[in-house]
Amino acid sequence: MTTQSLEAEAKALNDRLESLDLAGRLALVAGLEGRAVFTTSLGIEDQVITAAIGTNRLDIEVATLKTGRLFNETVALIEETEEAYDILIKRYFPEKADIEDYVAQYGMNGFYESVEARHACCGVRKLKPLARALEGVSYWITGLRRGQSGNRATTPYAEADLDRGLIKINPLADWDIETIHAHVAAEAIPVNPAAWPRLSVDRLRALHARHQARRAGACRTLVVGERREARMRPACCRSDFLHHSQCQQRRLRAAPQPRDKYPPGVRNAPHPSGNGIA
After folding, report:
1. By C-alpha distance, which of 10, 29, 83 is closest to 51?
2. Contacting residues for 205 by C-beta, under 8 A, at least 6 apart
3. pLDDT band with cut points at 50, 70 and 90 for residue 39
4. For the residues 230-238, what does the mean pLDDT come to?
5. How many CB atoms lie within 10 A of CB 155?
6. Which of 9, 144, 181, 199 would bridge 170 by S-S if both were Cys, CB 3.0 to 4.6 A apart?
7. E strand spans, the chain
8. Rounded distance, CA 39 to CA 34, Å?
9. Helix (H, G, I), strand (E, B) or coil at 265
C-alpha cells in the first residue's frame, strides 16, 4: 500500500469512527480486512479496551510486552484479565541475547545512570518485542487519549503509521479521565493496583505556571482598593524548587489562616490551607 493510499484510508476511517461509541469503533475495526492487534500495558485505558474486546467477543488480538521489569501486580493482572473476559493475551518477551548484551554494556540497572542507557533499555525490552507483535498487522489499536499530554491533544481516531506501514486506531481519543474512571467503576473492570494516578494535562500546566510565577519574583502584589502593597515571600519561596517544596510542606503543616486576616477588597490572598493550591 502506498503512502497516499494509507493516509487516505486512515482519514476515511477516522471519519467513520468519530460518531461511534467504543464498542462500535472496535467492532468496525474487527470487521475490516487484515489483522487487528491491540497492545496493552495493563493501564486503566488499556483495561477499558480489553474489557470491550472480551465482552463483545471481537476478532481482535490482544498482546502485551513482558519486559522482565514489570511489577508483580501487573503480571498478576494479565492472568486476572484473561480469566475475567475469557481471552488470551499474547506475551512478547525481549530476546535473551539482547538482554545479555545490554547487561554487559550498561549493567542490569544501567537505565538509572544515563539517557543513553534508558534508550537502549527501551529498545531491547519494548521496541524490539513491539516490532514482533506488529509484524503483518494492518490495524494497531492503542489506548492513546487527547487528555494524556499536550502532544496528544489532537490525537485522531485513526492515523497512518507510515514507518510501520499500518493504521493506528485510537478508540479512546475523545475520552477524558473522569469518563474512564466512571466506566471502570460501572463495569467492574479489573485494574492495576500498582498504577499511579495521573494528573490531567490542565492540572499539570496550572501547577507548572504557578511554580514559575512564584520563582519569577520575590514579592506578591496585593490590591487594596486603589492602593498596592508588596509583600515579600519567605526566602525559601524565592530559591530553587526543592526549597520551595520544603516551604510548601511547612506551610501545609501550619494552622490554616482565617480569611478575615485580609482587609475587604483584597485579591490574590493565599488559599485558607496556606499552600496556595485549591
Report:
1. 83
2. 150
3. very high
4. 40
5. 19
6. 144
7. 36-40, 61-65, 89-92, 139-141, 158-161, 166-169, 219-224, 227-232
8. 16
9. coil
For residues 97 and 125, is the Cβ–Cβ distance under 8 A? no
Q: Is the pLDDT of residue 149 over 80?
A: yes
Instruction: Give the C-alpha distances (Å, rounded to integers) separating 15 from 28, 60, 174, 178.
Output: 12, 21, 13, 25
What is the mean pLDDT of the segment spanning 189-213?
A: 69
| b/e per residue 171-194 (b: at least 16 CB within 10 A) | bbbebebeebeebbeeeebbbbee
d(CA 42, CA 126): 14
| C-alpha cell at position 118 | 534508558
Residue 40, strand partner residues: 64
CA separation for the pair 213, 254 (Å, rounded): 23
141 DSSP β-pair partners: 38, 169
**What phi-psi label fits residue 6: left (phi over 0), alpha (psi between -120 and 50 degrees) or beta?**
alpha
Contact 78, 42 (CB under 8 A): yes
- Residues 6 or more apart whose Cβ sits within 8 Å of residue 144: 45, 152, 155, 170, 172, 173
What average pLDDT does this structure show over 140-152?
95
CA 118 to CA 108: how far, in whole Å? 11
Round to whole Å and give the CA distance between 184 and 46.
11
- Strand-strand pairing, 139-141 and 36-40: parallel
Q: Are 271 and 259 in contact (CB under 8 A)?
A: no
